[in-house]
Amino acid sequence: MMLFPIAAATDMTFGERAAYAGRMLLIGMGAVFAALAVLWGSLVLFRLILKRAEAKKAPAPTAAPAAPTVPAVETPDDGALVAAITAAVAACLATENGGQIPAFRVVSYRRVGR
Question: DSSP 3-state assignment of 109?
């Protein structure tokens, strides 16, 4: 039996067509998995090469100085903080709009570095 029969599909029995389809399926899947294995192997190889290049390029690690400790700060009440922020924004907007305070709402806030 040939791998690629030349005869028309009508000349083959159902069993021969099923066997032919099975062989084609296995050959196709084998080719795909072989290509994936080659790609995977090349990616692993590139990763190893790049790690070695980074290790040669990077200076030797030194002992880092101890980080200074920051004293604990008492956190204020969030409601009071939101009220203070709202009052500050309202005062700022009132000076820009000739004394008229526009309608606004504070939806969120976050601390910024000092």
Answer: coil
List phi, psi (to 5°) of 107: -100, -35
Q: Do residues 82 and 97 touch, judged by C-beta distance below 8 A? A: no
Instruction: Provide the b/e sequence for 27-62 (b: ≥16 CB within 10 Å).
Output: eeeeeeeeeeeeeeeeeeeeeeeeeeeeeeeeeeee
Q: Is there a single domain that holds both residue 49 and residue 17? A: yes
Sequence-distant (6+) residues with CB within 8 A of 53 are: none
Q: Lowest-confidence range among 8-17, 33-42, 93-102?
A: 93-102
Domain span at residue 44 reads: 9-57
Q: Are residues 51 and 15 in the same domain?
A: yes
The answer to the question of residue 37 being in a domain is: yes
pTM of the model: 0.40
